[in-house]
Amino acid sequence: MGETGKEEYKIQSFDAETQKLLKTALKALQEFAHLALTNPALKQCWDFTFRSTCFQYYLRSPSLSHCDGCVSSLGGPCTTGAGVSKAADPSNVDLEKVANIIVDQSLKDRVFSKEAGRICYTIIQAESKQVGQSIFRRSLLNRLQQEYKDREELRTRSLQAWICYVTFICNIFDYLRVNNMPMMALVNPVYDCLFRLAQPDSLRKEEEVDCLVLQLHRIGEQLEKMNSQRMDELFSLLRDGFLLQEGLSSLSQLLLLEIIEFRAADWKMTDAAQKYYYSEVTD
Amino acid sequence: MESPAQAPLREAGRAASVSAGGRCEGAEREGAPHLYRTGPLAARLSPQPPRAMSFRQRSPHGSATSSPQPPPRWSQGRKRGADGKRRKQHEPESAVFEERKCGGSDSRLDSFTTPEGPGPLSRCSDWGTAVEEDEMRTSVNKEIARYRRKLLINEFARERKSSSGSSDSKESTVTVELETDEVVLMRRQKQINYGKNTIAYDRYIKEVPRCHRIPGVHPRTPNKFKKYSRRSWDQQIKLWKVALHSWDPPTEEGCDLQDIRPVDLGEMETESVGSNSESQTSCQDNDDTCSGTPTKVRHVDYQAEGEFDLEVCLSEPLKDFDTVS
Q1: Which of A143, A275, B110, B148 minimizes the number of CB atoms within 10 Å of its CB?
Q2: A109 to chain B, closest Cα gap in Å
Q3: Which residue of chain A has the CA closest to B113?
Q4: pTM of the model as a whole
């Protein structure tokens, strides 16, 4: 009776867009599986998360019929259980360690950081349902907080890691909900990160601008609902940057212009914008 | 010298990396600071010495007021108290549920309420705790909505039943004032959670489904939405918990767990409960009590920390489930 999981995922009905999302999540999942092969804590986590009905439900999506080698050797959804070890007792899994591994990985791997939020969500659900605890979530959030405190240092140390961090925290904000509401605690930190990306020295770096607009595309609307004043302020910065900043590459300028228009169109892509920004240029 | 316009921006969610020098990230932006002196932001600035404005040593989880009409920020959240000593960022958790009204210029609020947010945010030192509290609060709010609906439904049912001319006689029972104070509700919810997080309670609900309960014989969870005095409520909880002990498991299963816990008088004492390795996945708690308490928390491992442990009072974020693993 894995059907009870369905209710929780009603909102994630399998429309084309969701399938697309799931496909991208699969990459992160494969990465997770790959790590789990060599890491006992992750392996245990995989076991109990995997066996949770929710996880099975969404993994069984017809669009995910292909299984990566790692996933099947761990006991992916395609295997009927022979590959799955007896369910680890979640209370014995070192979920704090798992959380740390996931954060570490997401700081290294851009693809992973884009979709690891979904994995985290799944683990949290599994832990909550099976043992009624939220150790993983707490560890994850506190680790995120640590990194947040040292973010300036992180950025100095490694631009890539910083970009990954922002991607990850936005991804977490996107997926991790509390009673169907976004996490209030993350709103300001996420804004802070975005504000940092809107600073002149960051605007001069294309990768940072790219990260910024990507995050705004994904979570801008939600963020604005949580705090519209800060969004206004952020966009003031972006407008200023676009108009006055020196040293912006033309791509960066374009990205900024696009996001400004995007928001002006109420976070929707208009046909005109689609044509202008995303269509093939003939000349 | 940082642009004054940016200070409010920087204050919100400021990380602990703000140094005593009032360094603000991005303060070095040369881009267009002058725009802020004339824009809409300029109007809300109070010309304050930089120290007061930018030294919000606030907890990173960003419990800053982010509302459009905040009380003047410079009056809150001083990094140093009146005696010049640095204020500790972390408040003892027992203060979590005391809401001091805004206004004290050198006392930091224990909680903030933002218009966009769901309710008071207490000053927590870490995101994990903040989110857990958030979760409990939203759960409680959902429950009260549910309870209200239920009352309404009952009301209509009653009105329909009463004969044509005599509906007035029922009026006095219709208007019931509910307890809506969030602080109170959260405290009561915690007390309920303590009681429900026991083996005794598990055994009780398995043994006696709700439909088979006999009022007066079978314990019933006190309804946190009804108005009761503090003493009355605490007493109800106490009696309820005592009654639940009838379902304590036989001794060999470790009845240390079932020792009567100190009654939680809102002091938020930490409790150290021996851990039970068993963890059945039973969310089939069809205990949809009138208080609408969410699915029982199955908390196996309490850790007695030096402060109140919110983990103990986790609510299930999910709806009722039947997990068959």
Answers
A1: A275
A2: 24
A3: A184
A4: 0.57
